[in-house]
Write a structure and sequence with these properties.
The complex is a heterodimer of chains A (242) and B (257). Chain A is α/β, with parallel strands linked by helices. Chain A has a single domain, classed as Rossmann fold. Chain A is built from 8 helices and 9 strands. In chain A, the strands form 2 sheets. Chain A has a 6-stranded mixed β-sheet, with helices on both faces. Chain A is globular and about 60 Å long. Chain B has one domain. The chains are: A alpha/beta (242), B mainly alpha (257). The interface between A and B is medium-sized, with 31 and 30 residues.
């Protein structure tokens, strides 16, 4: 039973020699006959499957295509070829607190952020107290977000996000949040998700976190899969490569 | 087409929230904020009234027709120009999370629809005072407003997706709307347009919408079936072109931000 199937996905970026962002520049470019851009394959022939309830880690150097792959899974980017299919409700955490409005209160922002994650107002009503408790921000619920510290901001975002319980989580390096005690709570929550049989794809440079969370890991380099398999082995492989 | 509508339906909460945030920001979270926002159209109406009143027969009618014209115009001008940046200004909702991106345009146009609705409602007592009565046909106002909304949403889809790739489109659009302002019967009556250019003049959908608002709110006439059909045709065409272009162009939105 696969929750995620990625079949032969490739993604190409265009790197223009001269970026044209206006109609004027495009017309000028036509006259000067300069369409030139370089093509850069961020991902090439990627194919893999993730089973239901499995946690897959993705590691690799900067620029190896990890984040691009995660963005394609999140449907933020479209692949140039190949196909992906994801099962059930997907929540992507490429960044926490997307759509937060500094001029509104914590309370209002919880509702807005939840709706971005696809929740209905009634569902949030039931979770509201839990979210605030988990974030340890009960006292500040009616404060405008612009007066929040960055730590409070992230805690609020993280707590809201984890209560939007999806079937599949796509996570990009967002868990280095808050102090040690909050980090521990986050780790416990992730373990709980795993125990509940959620599918997780986790992109990180924190190899310890990958080791702890994921049974299987994929190593990317220059947009291609180098190896994929048992986390311990793949991490050793990666360390040897560096 | 059906799938995108059902996807957007799942996110109806978000559509509502974004529209509310938009309105709150626009009116600076104050109750008076809305009345401040009325100041500019009413002042504009006042200035235009004194400059152009000789172009109309009865000045009383001119005052009402002018105000209805300006409100109808504002819905189009504000709706399309704020749609332009609906995608670009919400970059994080495009590059950091998946939502059906049409939502960003829809919520923006909805917020404009509500603003416009409030502006028209404020006109009702003014019309009542100046005319001495309120035409019953006002009750059909929502029908025209709905079709107009649909037309502007279609135009907004097209403009917002093109703006991601062509960032000088806002300058161009500003000029286009300025030209359209004077190509619409706002400060002058439709009757001064020579017969030989009338067919071309009526190709401007804003003119048709304006005429229907005036029929319903001032003259107390039912709009002709012909103009209703043409206007719905415009709305469907704008929507089809807009959503087709949007679907094609949105694939590379995240890369172009």
């Amino acid at each position: 039973m696969s929750a995620i199937i990625v079949d032969n996905v490739s993604k190409k970026f265009r790197i223009p020699h001269e970026k044209k962002t206006t109609i004027f520049q495009n017309i000028a470019g036509l006259i000067k006959r300069r369409f030139d851009y370089e093509e850069f394959w961020a991902l090439k022939d990627i194919g893999f499957e993730v089973g239901k309830g499995e946690a897959l880690g993705i590691i690799g150097r900067n620029g190896s295509g990890k984040s691009t792959l995660l963005k394609i899974l999140a449907k933020v980017l479209y692949p140039d070829s190949g196909s992906i299919s994801l099962d059930g409700k997907v929540a992507s955490f490429l960044q926490l607190g997307v759509g937060f409005q500094p001029e509104l209160t914590a309370r209002e922002n919880i509702y807005i952020y939840s709706s971005i994650l696809g929740l209905r107002r009634k569902q949030v009503d039931g979770l509201y107290e839990d979210i605030l408790d988990f974030a340890e921000l009960k006292k500040f619920e009616n404060m405008k977000l612009k007066s929040f510290s960055s730590g409070m901001n992230l805690r609020l975002a993280f707590s809201t996000a984890i209560y939007a319980v999806p079937d599949t989580l796509l996570i990009d390096e967002v868990f280095a949040v808050g102090d040690e005690s909050f980090k521990k709570k986050c780790r416990d929550k992730m373990d709980q998700f795993k125990a509940e049989g959620k599918t997780i794809v986790f992109v990180s440079h924190a190899l310890d976190a990958v080791k702890e969370l994921c049974q299987r890991t994929m190593l990317l380099n220059h947009g291609r899969i180098v190896t994929m398999g048992d986390t311990e082995k793949v991490i050793n492989n990666y360390l040897a490569m560096l | 087409m059906v799938t995108i509508v059902s996807k957007m339906w799942q996110y109806r909460e978000l559509i509502r929230n974004l529209a509310v945030v938009d309105l709150k920001n626009r009116y600076q979270n104050t109750t008076l904020g809305f009345f401040w926002s009325l100041l500019s159209p009413l002042l504009l109406a006042l200035v235009l009234y004194f400059i152009f009143r000789h172009l109309w027969g009865r000045e009383q009618d001119f005052a009402i027709n002018l105000m209805v014209g300006i409100m109808a115009w504002r819905f189009f001008a504000n709706g399309t120009s704020s749609s332009l940046s609906a995608i670009v200004s919400k970059a994080s909702l495009v590059t950091r999370v998946y939502i059906p991106r049409q939502i960003l345009v829809l919520s923006n146009v909805l917020a404009n629809t509500i603003s416009s609705l409030l502006e028209f409602v404020v006109l009702l007592p003014i019309i009542f005072v100046l005319l001495g009565y309120l035409p019953v046909t006002v009750l059909l106002f929502p029908v025209v407003h709905l079709v107009y909304f649909w037309f502007i949403y279609g135009a907004g889809l097209l403009l917002s997706s093109l703006f991601v790739y062509f960032r000088d489109l806002n300058q161009i659009w500003q000029v286009v709307t300025q030209v359209l302002f004077f190509c619409s019967p706002i400060v002058y009556p439709l009757s001064i347009i020579p017969d030989n250019i009338m067919p071309y003049y009526l190709l401007n959908p804003v003119t048709l919408f304006m005429g229907m608002y005036r029929d319903l709110m001032v003259a107390g006439d039912l709009p002709s079936l012909y103009s209703l059909v043409v206007v719905i045709g415009f709305a469907i065409a704008a929507y089809l072109v807009g959503s087709f272009a949007f679907r094609k162009l949105q694939r590379r939105f995240a890369e172009e931000m």
